[in-house]
Amino acid sequence: MARAYGSSATLLMKRESAYGGQASGDYVRIPFNSCSLGSEQGLIDDPVLGQGRDPLAPLQDVINDEGDIVVPVDPRYLGFWLTGLLGDPTSNAVAASGYIDFATNPSDGDTITVGGTTWTFVSGVPSGNETQIQTTATQTIDQLITDLNGSVDVNIDDATYSRPASTQRLLLTHDTAGVSGNAFTLAASAAMAGGPALTGGGSSHVFVSGIDVLPSYSIEVGMAQVPAFFMHAGVVLNSITLEFQRSGAAAATINAIAQGETRNATTQGGTPTTLAFSRISQFQGSITKAGQPVGNLTSGSLTYSNNLEKIETIRSDGLIEGADPTVAALTGRIDVRFADTSLIDAAAGGTPVDLEFGYTIGSSKVLFTAHEVYLPKPKLAVDGPGGIQASFDFQGAKNDAAGRMLTVTLTNDLDGTVYL
């Protein structure tokens, strides 16, 4: 007799065309760490008297189908969960970019290589792929920008070159939006390139909080050894929780509410499709305030909740009618070693701050931008000779300028149609 093991379990997912209507066709196979999504039906003691001291058979209660799904933070698969939580994204192609920083003015014979073409700095009269060295580094970079933008080299003219104000940086932006620009290479003999190639080319998917209508999904949890395949229809996503730490594997906990569960002997997910899987570690995460890293940060967390309200109408099948979003909530915590009073001053004065929680892997990234966050004033306790730590349990609110409480930007190599 075969036994079910989590190592062989599968989780398939597909968007429904109407709430509670099981999706047909080929599902997407989703990587996951654990899943407690499942239906349960309690028992009610029979209140009838006059039949002796032994109780009568209990009655069946209503059906509840909900639970948590813990998934790895992946820049492609995460888009499915974000769509369920926040609604359809606005997707646009993004051009790859990169830079070369010059600490000092280049010397005669120094080179940079862009797009596979070598460009040389000379002190004399330039010719071909050369730039004449000027009096200062800034002037040399400006001359380099003029020369590169005017070049007819088939590799060099694939990008546009500029210098951000008050910097000694050559900024390169690929002319073609999308993933192709990530192959444009960079190198320098006596300067510092931001990487071996441009990065960030792909698609940007922007999700915003406050959407009134959220999509529903059909999710199948399969255990092929038994065999038993549990299909959950009418799945609506309630919340997402992210924990930021110094080490470990990055994961997100998704709370879901389904309408009901059906057990099948064979999978209903057709021939599942898969995406390339990119695992993210905790060290690739960051938390910033006003665009700058939060100083002395030791850990943090972020939870966004739709605060779904189950519509528990009277039905003969015991199922809910739906799960509707109410007032959303954005909460979390940041733990810092006490080294300055900037956060405590903001908390004491009731001054809101903006926080950005993110993960970056290569050219892909996900950023949760909380536009207006209020911090409580914490108690600072001295528990021993070690460092003193302050914990801030924050709450988010709608920002009038942004028009919302939360913006999530997911950048990957998908065009966005897969999420729709």
List keywords for this structure.
Alpha-Beta Plaits; 420 residues
Provide the fold topology.
Elements: E1 10-15, E2 28-29, E3 34-35, E4 38-44, E5 59-72, H1 78-86, E6 90-94, E7 97-101, E8 111-114, E9 117-122, E10 130-132, H2 137-149, E11 159-162, E12 169-174, E13 186-188, E14 192-193, E15 202-208, E16 217-223, E17 228-244, E18 251-258, E19 260-264, E20 285-289, E21 292-293, E22 297-305, E23 309-311, E24 322-324, E25 329-337, H3 342-348, E26 353-361, E27 364-374, E28 389-396, E29 406-412
Parallel strand pairs: 9-10
Antiparallel strand pairs: 1-2, 1-16, 3-5, 4-5, 5-18, 6-15, 7-12, 7-14, 8-9, 8-13, 11-12, 15-29, 16-17, 17-18, 17-19, 17-22, 20-21, 20-26, 22-25, 23-24, 25-28, 26-27, 27-28, 27-29
What overall form do the CA principal axes indicate? elongated
The number of domains is 2
Q: What Rg, in angstroms, do the CA atoms define?
A: 28 Å
Counting helices, strands and paired strands, the structural category is mainly beta
Model regions low in confidence, pLDDT < 50 over at least 5 residues: none
Helix share, percent = under 10%
